[in-house]
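Quick one: structure tokens for this chain, please?
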Amino acid sequence: IKAMPRPRIVPRRNKRFRPRKNVRKIKKGVIHIQASFNNTIITVTDVQGQVVSWASAGTSGFKRTRRGTPYAAQVAAVNAIRRVGMRRAKVMIKGPGLGRDAALRAIYRSGILLSFVRDVTPMPHNGCRPPKKRGFI
């Protein structure tokens, strides 16, 4: 009996995912943290505002409700700043999510010198008019 060759198992790749192009190395920049209740997005820009690198809890491999956790925000922050090679940064934090502090702690632990940390969460100055009360007859 002749031995059959084993079929090679090739890992299936997602068609939408392409490896990123080489990320620019910058010395100074701005790190934007947008923390919602469902996800945390970390964007690294240069001083002019051009996006150099970004990561989110979703792109870091977390699904569904785990994207809103502090640990997911920490992993996303490390992924966003890993390839950039920054030395100094300003940090802008936006949103009410759980990942705010965890992402900031991860950035601080990476060895980047933070010149300042600013909360840029939009706050309404008494905002939109609420809907009228429901009438009961």
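Residues 30-119 form a domain with the Nucleotidyltransferase; domain 5 fold (CATH 3.30.420.80).
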